Amino acid sequence: MNAQDLTILAIDDHQDNLITLQAVVGDALPGARVLTALDGWRGIELARANQPDVILLDIVMPGLDGFETCRRLKNDEGLGHIPVVFLTALRTDRQSRVMALEAGAEGFLTKPLDESELTAQIRAMAKIKAANDAKHLQNQRLAGLVAQRTRELERELAQRRQAEESLRQANQELEQSRSAALDLLEELKAEMRAREQSQAALKQSEEKYRGIYETIQDIYFETALDGTILELSPSVERLSQFTRRELIGASILNLYANPTERQEVVARLLGAEIINDFEISFRDKDGRDVPCSLSAMLAMDEDGRPKKICGVLRDISERKRNERELRQSQAFNASIIASSADCIKVLDLEGRLQYMSPGGARLMALADIKTLLGLPYQQFWRQPDLENVGQALETARQGGQGRFQGFCPTADGQPKWWDVTVTPIAGANGQVESLLAVSRDITENRRAEEALRKSEELLRLVTDHIYDWEYWISPELKLLFVSPSCQAITGYQPGEVMADAGLLDRIVHPEDQGLWREHLEQYRMGEGFQRQGQGVELRILAKDGHTVWISHRCRPVFGNDGRFLGRRVSNRDITRRKLAEAERAELEAQLRQAQKMEAIGTLAGGIAHDFNNILAAVLGFAEMAREDVRTGPVNPTDLDQIISSAQRAKELVHKILAFSRKKEPDLKPLSLNKVVQATGDILERTLPKMIGIETRLDQDLPPVLADPTQVEQVLLNLASNAQDAMAEGGRLLIETQIISLDQEYCRRHLEVRPGAYVLLMVSDTGAGMDAQTREHIFEPFFTTKDIGKGTGLGLSSAYGIVKNHGGHIHCYSEPGQGTVFKMYLPAYQAAASPPPPPEALDEAALAGSEGILLVDDEAALREYGQRVLETKGYRVLTAQSGEEALEIYRGQDGQLDLVLMDLGMPGMGGHKALKEILAQDPRAKVIIASGYSAGGQVKESLESGAAGYVAKPFRRAELLGTVRKVLDQA
Questions:
Q1: Cis peptide, bond prior to residue 953, ω within 30 of zero
Q2: Strand blocks (E) in 62-218
Q3: Cβ of 252: how many Cβ atoms within 10 Å?
């Protein structure tokens, strides 16, 4: 059967379940027709009208439940052939499944439904229904044939009787019709055989329903109108302890605990013909009364007169027990409410009083609450509480819990404050039908809170006008009070300090922790300190991380009886005074260093190692290539150029590392073009790709007397500001040119002297600045960036550097037109000295035959180092990590003379591997290699026992020379 030919009837008392079921069936069986009914009666009507292929039936429904609906469907001659599948989320136990089968259901599914299982059940039930329909049609056809043939036989028998009469009258005519009679007899035999087959099918059907009849849990009965029992299902033996044989033929009045109930049943049946769920008391064989639910109807004879009573008895003992327990629970709850000290009220949805507990009447000093019933909540509450009451009621109406506090006097005029909680009361359908309000008397709490508030208000009035940060500590070192000025000084709110006992110790600056502990120890020394008090100046770390200098003074507090009550502490912010005490020269140096570290400090450490590894590989393989082709056709000058470029890259890394360290200016003749080119390489790697970098350099530019590191710092600072100004991308242009400043220019710029200058100009296409901003850009700590994104020291540092070089700097900018910075440095006439030529190698002195373990995480550097060393006769093993190096070193059992190890490797790293090797063999010779400067971990490794150090990228001569030097050490 195709899905579009299916008709499915779903019966469920919840509309949302029906909608969900329609959606599931629609997805699984597109085109199937789904009918829905919200109760059993409507479902039976739709089944009669539409003859569905499958009926999906919920068990738990009000009125006519699923089991009874199923029995009615199966007992209906026109509906009994339709398969029924129970769907339930609650009645999933074994007994419910048995009851479903006893009611006649063909299937049983539990919710939530599995779509594939539901689809399979529907298809199977549809096939069963189709088979039942075919069987039903066949039975009808056979019954029709039997009836038709019976009528024909009756007519034929009548004819036969006429024939027999005719035979008696005329034997001759009988003899002539004998042959026809014999033929007719054969036909009759064939019809009788067909009738026997039809009766066999009918018997099989009766046996099926007999099986259901014999296994049904409820008691099916038939009685005569006088009460004589005509028929009982076997289930009567379980309920009554009587056997069927004992009861059939007896009067059913013997089973009624109250015979008048039988009279009422008969009277109601005669009046309405059908009774549903009529409660009676059924008496079993042991004399016990069993509560039962009776459903019955009158069976009529062919003339429409009552013939007998047919019905079903159901044991409702469990239901009665549940109802009794419910009544007991309700009585218990009522006793709790009656004895509660709170005022418990029931309100309708509009807030009108419906009930008040006895305890509530006592609290409100009410003799009789009847006069208050039906009054709206507005009669009890006044502004400003009235709005809060309405909001709490609305919250409860929406299914939540409303709460408020308000003032409402008692009936005798006593002032009362109440804490009120309002919750919804749902009906059987799950909808909110009324509201429960519980009011608790909090008058004493409010009075105490009011007294405390007034006391705190007076204290706050005093402390709010104190600029110093004050706090009071008990003798047990517990914080009793923290003044509001704490937040202004430390960034922490008073509540945060009160809640965290260790916060006062943690915010002390790490360098002042010793001073702080000494101060606390003196406090704990005893009476002398407590009587006199003591102060100390120290630094703390505010909540945002910045350092604050405070003057901390402790003063003891004593009661009128002389008892020590704790200490009062005053903390005054003296940060400005401390900063003013520092010398101006040192301050400027610190500002320059801070900005320098902000601009590129992280860059130096971040790229130096990887950058040096790349340069080391380029430099090393270039040297090897030059060595290999020294007798070949390749021009060594080309390879020398590679080495020279790598050497310049090495020098650039050294500049970056030097730039990140604090040192005094190193003035020397310098080509600004080379500084711009070197800085441009750094900017290419650090600025976003959406910012284009261009240079326009005057090739005839004279040198200047300058510190290259500080000039690079100025360029990086200006480039960083330009990047912020070009958030959407743009162009950064760096230019150099020779320029002469005349008297006219110097008259307009009094700080400038006439002469030849080298102009270094940096311009961007960013947002630009207005005149007010331009007036302050060179002031320390002035910044237009968001908090935490800039110190405001960049341009002030640049201004100071240019001034220290004897030059001057100007800014040109307009909103939306970009910014141009022009720096004028005096030209220097002497030419810069050329770099010294590379040293020649003493090849013979660098050779050897010792065993060397080369450790580096860069495969190219391992190969390069191995080839350099092996070409000079050394035996070389390699490892790519500290862990592998330790394993190889242990396995060589003293056959290695030297370990050459990189410091910056993944895993345990070179420094830890060095310590492990020296722990195994204190005489081991280990050379460390690093792209960082000879400080930090390099210095620590040398102090830990490393025999030598080679800086990366190392040249062939440097590597071989360091190796030979360490091997030759005693």
A1: yes
A2: 84-88, 107-110
A3: 21
Cα–Cα distance, 954 to 950 (Å, whole number): 7
Answer yes or no: are the C-beta atoms of 938 and 903 closer than 8 Å: yes
Distance of CA 223 to the CA centre of its chain: 68
Helices and strands of the chain, counted as H and E runs: 32, 32
> Is the CB of residue 405 less than 8 Å from the CB of residue 441?
no
Query: Helix 636-659 crosses helix 602-628 at what angle (to 10 degrees)?
Result: 160
Contact yes or no for 596/570 (Cβ under 8 A): no
Q: Are 776 and 811 contacting, i.e. CB atoms less than 8 angstroms apart?
A: no
Residues 75, 80, 84, CA angle at the centre, nearest 5°? 110
Asked if 439 and 349 count as a contact pair (C-beta separation under 8 A), the reply is no
Q: At what angle do helices 602-628 and 859-871 cross, to 10 degrees?
A: 40
Mark residue 31 as left, alpha or beta (left: phi above 0; alpha: psi -120 to 50; beta: remaining): left
Give the type of residue at 332. Answer: F
Question: Which segments within 95-254 are labelled E, that is strand?
Answer: 107-110, 219-224, 229-232
Burial class (CB in 10 A: 0-12, 13-18, 19+), 885: buried
Q: Would you state the structure tokens that stand for residue 178, as one six-digit string?
A: 């004998």
Whether residue 484 has a cis bond before it, omega within 30° of 0: no
Name the pTM for this structure. Answer: 0.29
How far separated are the first and last CA of the chain, in Å rounded? 100
Residue 652 to residue 603: CA distance in whole angstroms: 13
- Token pair in block for residue 52: 């569905």
| Both structure tokens of 128 | 């069963």
CA gap 883, 886 in Å, rounded: 5
Structure confidence by residue, pLDDT tens digits, 856-898: 998 888 888 899 899 999 999 999 999 999 999 998 888 899 9
- In whole angstroms, what is the distance from residue 535 CA to residue 553 CA? 4
- Give me the helices (H) in 299-363, please: 317-339, 358-363
Helix (H) or strand (E) holding 537: strand 534-541
Phi-psi region of 227 (alpha: psi -120 to 50; beta: other; left: phi over 0): left
Output the pLDDT for position 184.
57
CA 40 – CA 759 distance, rounded (Å): 99
pLDDT digit string (tens) for 558-616? Answer: 877 878 888 888 888 988 888 877 655 555 555 555 555 555 543 444 355 546 665 66
Distance in angstroms (rounded) separating the CA atoms of residues 506 and 492: 13
Whether the bond into 708 is cis, omega within 30 of 0 = no
What is the mean pLDDT of each successive set of 10 residues along the chain, which is 970 residues long? 77 86 82 88 89 88 87 86 84 79 84 78 80 72 72 74 67 56 60 61 54 68 86 81 83 81 82 80 84 86 84 84 76 64 83 82 79 82 84 88 87 84 85 86 78 64 70 85 87 90 89 88 56 76 92 84 83 85 57 52 46 64 68 59 64 54 67 87 79 89 87 84 85 90 78 86 88 76 55 67 84 87 85 47 77 90 89 92 92 90 87 91 90 66 87 82 88
User: What three-state secondary structure class fits 346?
Assistant: strand
CB 798 within 8 A of CB 809: yes
DSSP state of 687: S
- What is the total residue count of the chain? 970
Q: Are 784 and 729 in contact (CB under 8 A)?
A: no
Q: What is the pLDDT of residues 13-39, one digit of tens each?
A: 888 888 888 888 888 888 888 899 989
Largest distance between two CA atoms of the chain: 171
* CA–CA dist 733, 722 (Å, integer): 10
Coil vs helix vs strand at 907? coil
H/E element holding 578?
helix 575-581
